[in-house]
Amino acid sequence: MKTRSFAVIGLGTFGSTVASELARFGNPVLGIDTDARHVTRLADTLSEAIIADGKDEAALKEAGVGNYDVAIVAIGEDLEANILCTMNVKMLGVETIWVKALNRTHHRILTKLGADRVILPEQEIGQHIAQMLHNPLVRDYVSLGNGYHVVDLRVPSQLDGKRIGDAAIFTKYDLRALGAMRDSKYLSCEGGDLTLMEGDKLLILGKRTDLRHFGDDLRDGG
After folding, report:
1. Inter-residue contact 66 to 92 (CB < 8 Å)
2. Helix or strand or coil: residue 156?
3. d(CA 163, CA 180)
4. Residue (of 142, 145, 133) closest to 219 by Cα position
5. What is the rounded CA–CA span in Å between residue 164 and residue 185?
6. Predicted confidence (pLDDT) per residue in 95-122, tens digit
7. Nearest-angstrom CA–CA distance, 181 and 185
8. Cα 128 to the chain's mean position, in Å?
9. Residue of 165, 166, 194 lying closest to 179 (CA atoms)
């Protein structure tokens, strides 16, 4: 797989985390911030870290931002700087642009400006936390779009010893078991022959409403 290059503009908590993780995965990462402390902190972690203003198109051009495959605008509370920076990286011809939004209105503005992905970190993390607090069996979930999600669920005692094909609760809610992890071993659910064990990590595909009712039934011992 071809390595992509990333320019992260705004190195606060969110931006520095994204930049550091991308660098850890082996990607070339340019970090940009107006605060010298943030830049210095990541100087040895990223491919390059410089002090520059995202509102200044000339400064971004001189930094070579237009040569990067992806720009992540992670500027925090400064709405004007966030929007101007998004416009600048768009003008510089960056192929893919991800932007951190402050709220729903900001989200709509950034979408109109041509951002490929607009992130509301606090809201997205809040939804994940609420889902896991609501049902302790749910370890994590991923949205696939069009109402479909994949849920990572810990198999409870009431499904221990049951074959996937014999567990009526799956057909009751029109769900599909994709696979399971037992310790470090992956087990296929194809054909419905897998016998579940309590504690297995089970991946389930379905619509959000069906998944919620399924989880509620398991949580309540149904």
Report:
1. yes
2. coil
3. 12
4. 133
5. 17
6. 999 999 988 889 899 999 999 999 888 7
7. 6
8. 11
9. 194
Q: Are 22 and 46 in contact (CB under 8 A)?
A: no
Q: How far apart are CA 30 and CA 39, in angstroms?
A: 10
Residues whose CB falls within 8 Å of the CB of residue 94, separated by 6 or more in sequence, listed in order: 7, 65, 66, 68, 69, 70, 71
Q: Do 109 and 98 form a contact (C-beta atoms < 8 A)?
A: no
Taking CA atoms, 206 is separated from 2, 150, 152, in Å, by 32, 7, 12
Contact assessment for residue 39 and residue 62, using Cβ atoms and an 8 Å cutoff: no
Residues facing 119 on adjacent strands: 100
CA 108 to chain centre: 19
pLDDT in tens, 24-77: 999 999 999 999 999 999 999 999 999 999 999 999 999 999 999 999 999 978
Strand partners, 195: 163
Q: How far apart are CA 121 and CA 95, in angstroms?
A: 22
Q: Is 219 exposed, middle or buried (0-12, 13-18, 19+ CB in 10 A)?
A: middle
- pLDDT recorded at residue 88: 96
pTM: 0.71
Give first-to-last CA distance, the chain, whole Å. Answer: 45
Of 193, 191, 189, the closest CA to residue 201 belongs to 189
Burial class of residue 41, CB neighbours in 10 A (0-12, 13-18, 19+): middle
